[in-house]
Design goal:
Blueprint: E1 2-8, H1 14-27, E2 35-41, H2 49-58, E3 63-69, H3 75-91, E4 96-99, H4 107-118, E5 128-137, H5 143-158, E6 162-169, H6 177-186, E7 191-196, H7 203-218, E8 223-226, H8 234-249, H9 261-265, E9 303-306, E10 323-326
Parallel strand pairs: 1-2, 1-3, 3-4, 5-6, 5-7, 7-8
Antiparallel strand pairs: 9-10
Helix pairs in contact: 4-8
């Protein structure tokens, strides 16, 4: 039997985890009945990834397609989730694993952002010379993720007639949201729409609401609005269906399960990701030699220099890894 294993990030805020579960429940009827559907979390919530895999296997799965519900490719999707899959390949040698890719740059993501702007009363077709959109992401130390976020902000700008679309981050990476708001003000905006680039609610969304209140005091000359995060948007379901179909068809692009660097990178990081649930603490040390011979031809050639310090509002015990690795992805991102 085949299984779809959705991997959510996990949040310290229970409501965020509930939203992930509810979203998957809404998606499940549109997934063919022959597929087992399981949901697990990278951290902060049960079940963790090993338990999610175990649940799928116990339900009879012999092929598991792991689909990360993660916005951009960074340390979690490049290293931590593939590492859990590597361990599972040893624990379940008769099970075939395929790792799908994160949401990434997708035309439906731009459509979601446009619809969230419209919900604030913003007319997409009209000119808004005095309006700035402040696109707000989580932020991290992965250059690929940060640059993809900038690309998304530009793609959004191309669809609008506004003074500017300013990308900003909640933490780790510059510019921070405070800097982005100041820039919007200095550019002459009279109205700023804070547009979250977040899937579900969580601690950072709560923090963003408080930031809006502070900005309204600090910038009395500005009209400031806070749009909704992605949430249960139908177009988000479309993106995940695309990622499932890619995995099932063996057409996954930009997938770090095939990147040799991350196996070496695991030597430099402590992957104890708060997986303190389900009695699986990753306190064991496997000396496996994984021969990743996949059926897709990855002749990649972009240079990633990652230093995953993950200080973004979680207590990752993986500070200061300096992953200098060259791998090569010749496939184009969509």
């Amino acid at each position: 039997m085949k299984a779809i294993l959705f991997v959510g990030h996990g949040s310290r805020l229970p409501a965020g985890n509930d939203e992930v579960r509810n979203f998957i429940q809404q998606m499940t009827p549109s997934i063919p009945e022959e597929y087992i559907v399981e949901t697990c979390f990278l951290e902060f919530e049960k079940p963790n990834i090993p338990t999610g895999i175990k649940n799928a296997v116990e339900r009879g799965a012999t092929e598991i397609y792991a689909i990360p519900i993660i916005l951009l490719q960074a340390g979690h999707s490049k290293i931590h989730i593939p590492h859990e899959i590597d361990e599972a390949k040893v624990d379940y040698p008769n099970v075939k694993f395929t790792y799908g890719r994160p949401i990434g740059i997708h035309e439906e993501v731009i459509e979601i952002l446009l619809s969230r702007l419209q919900q604030t009363g913003f007319a997409i077709e009209e000119e808004h010379k005095d309006t700035a959109v402040l696109l707000i992401g989580r932020g991290g130390s992965d250059a690929d993720a940060n640059s993809d976020f900038y690309k998304i902000s530009r793609l959004l700008y191309e669809r609008l007639n506004v003074a500017t679309v300013e990308p900003a981050f909640m933490g780790v990476a510059a510019p921070l949201v405070d800097e982005g708001m100041e820039r919007c003000s200095r550019l002459g905006a009279k109205k700023v729409i804070m547009l979250p680039y977040f899937l579900f609610t969580g601690i950072l969304m709560e923090r963003m609401a408080k930031m809006k209140e502070r900005y309204e005091v600090d910038y009395p000359e500005l009209t400031i609005e806070l749009a909704e995060y992605f949430g249960y948007h139908d177009k988000l379901k479309n993106v995940l269906h695309d990622r499932i179909n890619e995995a099932v068809a063996g057409e996954v692009k930009m997938n770090c399960d095939t990147c040799q660097y991350r196996i070496n990178a695991m030597d430099f990081i402590d992957h104890h990701h708060h997986h303190d649930d389900d009695d699986h603490h990753h306190g064991h040390s496997h000396s496996h030699s994984h021969d990743h011979s996949h059926d897709h031809d990855h002749s990649h050639s972009h240079d990633h220099s990652h230093d995953h310090d993950h200080s973004h509002d979680h207590d990752h015990a993986c500070d200061g890894h300096d992953h200098s690795h060259a791998h090569c992805h010749s496939e184009a991102k969509n």
